[in-house]
Amino acid sequence: MISYQQVTKIYEPELVALREVSFEVKPGEFVSFVGKSGAGKSTLLRLLLAEERPTSGEVVFEGESVNRVAGNQLPAIRRRLGVVFQDYKLLPSRTAYENVAYVLEVMGAGEDVIAREVSEVLDIVGLLGKAHQFPAQLSGGERQRVAIARALVHRPRVIIADEPTGNLDPYHTRDIIRLLVRINELGTTVLLATHNREVINRLGKRVLTLENGRLARDEERGRFVI
């Protein structure tokens, strides 16, 4: 489904973010990327989103070379991806419902489709009862669940979660990780970047460890080792 082939990313003048990284992700996998700050986790995910281009090597998503796709074709690829950020990136002037609906509005979906899909994903993340509350009225964990609903509403093939628990306490961290696992169990591939050792050890799923831009370990049921 996803393939990184000898991917190197160098930022000018000489900052090497990734160096000859190769791995594959199968449909339906839950894969965590771990490492210290600056190890290359976020760069790895930005390459899949084509927010960055590799200096050398190739990133392939569902048979398409992401780094070779023309700019006008990128939206079609990104519609198959859902992204969850550490700082939520919710629109403060819109309710939880409206934040999630915005994605479908941009895609041109009709009102009936929007009403059905938004209600369904808010139910999945356990926030249907708070659909009409604004981000400022929600806890940090609830805001992140809205962000996950927004990433999920267009039914992406892959959810990319970049440090989604970085601003959360341990209780809400466990809540968000359980939600990502549930989404994965429903068939969506999940890519998680984190530096949280406890999260990785509890998951017991595949872990790719980055060290200084290199892929140091690829373990099927890994533990975060520093």
User: What are the secondary-structure elements, in order, as H or E?
Assistant: EEEHEEHEHHHEHEHEE
Beta-strand content estimate: 25-35%
Going by helix content, strand content and strand pairing, the class is alpha/beta
**Number of E-state strands:** 10
- Spans of at least 5 consecutive residues whose pLDDT stays below 50 are none
Radius of gyration from the alpha-carbon trace, in angstroms: 17 Å
Please give the alpha-carbon distance between the first and last residues. Answer: 29 Å
Number of helices: 7
Residue share in helix: 25-40%
Give the overall silhouette. globular
For the biggest sheet, the summary is: 6 strands, mixed
**What's the arrangement of strands in the largest beta sheet?**
6-7-8-3-9-10
Give the overall pLDDT as a whole number.
93
Task: Write structural notes for this entry.
The chain is α/β, with parallel strands linked by helices. Helices cover 33% and strands 27% of the residues. The protein has seven helices and ten strands. Helix 3 packs across helix 4 (111-124), helix 3 packs parallel to helix 5 and helix 4 (111-124) crosses helix 5. The two termini are 29 Å apart.
Quick take:
The protein has 226 residues and is of the alpha/beta class. The protein has helices at 41-48, 74-78, 96-106, 111-124, 140-152, 170-185, 197-203, and strands at 2-11, 15-25, 30-34, 56-61, 64-65, 81-84, 158-162, 189-194, 206-211, 214-219.
Layout of strands and helices, then pairs:
Elements: E1 2-11, E2 15-25, E3 30-34, H1 41-48, E4 56-61, E5 64-65, H2 74-78, E6 81-84, H3 96-106, H4 111-124, H5 140-152, E7 158-162, H6 170-185, E8 189-194, H7 197-203, E9 206-211, E10 214-219
Parallel strand pairs: 3-8, 3-9, 6-7, 7-8
Antiparallel strand pairs: 1-2, 1-4, 4-5, 9-10
Helix pairs in contact: 3-4, 3-5, 4-5, 5-6
